[in-house]
Amino acid sequence: MNGLMRSRPEASYRCPTLLSEHHRQRKWVDHSYSSSRLRIDPKVLLFVENTFSKLGRDIAELLVHNRMKYKVEVSGRSLPIMTNGDKGRFSTIVFENYTKYLHMDKWNKELIDKYAREYNIGILGFMPSRDETFVGAQLKNASLYIDTNVKVKDAYLNPSSGVLRVTRAGDIVRGLLPSEPNDLWTVFSPNHTTFEPVCMATHYHEQEAEYVHSPPSTSNMPLITVIQDKGEEDGIRRVLFGAGLKFWLNKLLFLDGVSYLSRGRLSISLKRYVLIDIDDIFVGEKGTRLKSTDVEAILDTQERLRNLVPGFRFNLGFSGKYFHYGDDEENDGDDLLLEHSDKFMWFPHMWNHIQPHLYGNVSQLVIDMSKNKDFAKEHGIPIDSGYSVSPHHSGVYPVHEILYDAWKKVWNIKVTSTEEYPHLRPARLRRAFIHRGVMVLPRQTCGLFTHTIFIDRYPGGQSKLDESIWGGELFQTIIFNTINVFMTHMSNYGNDRLGLYTFESVIKYVQCWTNLQMVTLPPVLLAEKYFKMHPDELDPIWGNPCDDPRHRKIWANNKTCESLPQFLVIGPQKTGTTALYTFLTMHPTISSNKPSPETFEEVQFFNGKNYYRGLDWYMRFFMSENGTVEQRNVTINNQESLKKPILFEKSATYFDNELVPRRAHALLPRAKILVPAHACPQRPGRRELHVLRGADRVVNFTQESQRSAESVSEPRSVRAAPGALGVVLLPQQLLIIDGDELRNDPVSIMYRLQQFLQIDPLFDYSSRLRYDKNKGFYCQVISQNKNKCLGRNKGRQYPAMDSKSAKYLNVYYTTHNSALVKMLKRLDQQIPMWLREDLGQSSS
Q: Can you give the pTM of this predicted structure?
């Protein structure tokens, strides 16, 4: 059916005039509190029922989405340390189940109340909706009654509530209000001026059932679902919710509650930057493209939106090859777009809409981009936006380096966007990064794709689309992201014009229900603002493309994760890492990276400037000349077989760099880690202190592992502190090698190491390593009378440390050494003799 003959959805939503006008005259509440003596970290203390409770996870997810720091504690356990000197550690206290606070033992409850009063912060709590023991109960002397197991409908806000900041009392949310479980709520009945309603509703009658709880009510009496305690009775401000976060309005009120109770220390911005890309301009089959009437509708809607969103213009991404590929009416639409080209922002898509990762060389990519640029010049399309988007996000992430090369050469691109970094889902974790001078912004989806052009073919129909707009996913995307770059397609603006309906509707709904101010900026200015707001996202974190099916599909066919190392040697300097590297490379099945002209056998990728050269640069160190990792014939113990090498990389500089843990784990999450270590007090002067710092890092991460394992509910995992591994590791991933044993009995160490790496068959090192009396350590056997040893600076003997210094250092590291012993036992690994001796000396 022709889309013009259909009944298109119209964005006809309007806020009630009275409420809308009331709020135009009323400023949002300033929650800030000025006091020079108050020093508090902007952090939430969150008490959950248990580590798996759904509402607890929902609260934590909402905090993460809005970039708020928080600490999770399980209710009923000991309280965390609340202060650090004269500084408070938390700006708001949140209870997933407020009754856990009410039932706290007297000592702990008084501690929390004392902290709240002293630091002038508040408590936010959620009431369970099915706790029969609280039906008609008093929560605070005789000042507040509650009733549970209530179904409610038609929510509306108290416009004079001091809690409202982001949220405004714009309308009524019609219908049954959702809650978990079974849409049941707790409602509040106050009996003191300290309480003020925040959100109200009316009773929902189901099959004419009567409201039987005390106190009695009638169907038209307001029921309070969210209430504010101004602290007039006991000096503590509170906000209480009668249900969790399933109802979208509660999410907004939660953010306002946290802002109100923290005195503005935990507040989100009221500014929202919105950029709407329309990709695939001129691309599409006949019958799906824009006609002149569609272009006129885009222009009309854009003008209306400019009155709501200052600076608003649609951002059109064009592929010139498909200009005039439609029927006569659609070709007229193409012409009309160009006639009004000055009314829009423009960016280059791809000349022929081919995904860049399918190009094998930069020359052809440059040729095709140049065609698109020539087309733009010929038809009066601006060419200086500095922004581009790749079809299906191909080449942006995972990075295809030639795309960045061609972008710079042809278009001088400064900004792009993708929804793929670090992964498509969950959207709340999307981040930005900068690579080779190109700023990559996170992109958001709106529920519209190239195939969603008719409302009756939209998955779930119009009701599903409206659900996303009226408080659902699209609405919340704008609320929870200060900067939004939305992806749409040309086909969404023809036929039923779902793109126009969607965005005009959601923008009006946002303005009805919030105090947010929306504006549009050109992409380069938008990117500069983003990184000013989030400077911690400047550096990329390269993930493993093979761990995500979507990433694998947009990764070049000639790239393979087989060209990434299976294990890393990260021991600190002067612990035998070079000797271990030499012994490993003697193994016929094990292969190291190719040498670097700058850093020799160490690539030093994860800890320095080489990381910014990208994944392609790193992988080349593990590939053959033809760009693959080929199987090879190997002979072990007189047995020939065809095997792919086990790749590894060694760098002593990885051990004491704070950036390495997160980077290495993101790219190589299953890689095994080898860490040589030996007794510290063996080196005089600075050399010794260098090793000591390394040892300190080893044992520090063992202590952190115990705390982190509890917090993430992974009791069998080991989590490293910064400077060591920094991520959760399974026991089978980590092997700590006794550096003294490596020097004195390398054959035993290499046997154990092969078992750890699960190499079969085992390589016999006993005939390949021999002790060299002149050197004082083991060397590689070349012939019956000849050894190949490490250089002169290896294996040197140092004068003994004076007893006073040795004793001091042994005492200093007793705690760390004890933690290291506990970790080794947990991993079922041997305790080195030097470690046993150190502990024995320090305890004697």
A: 0.88
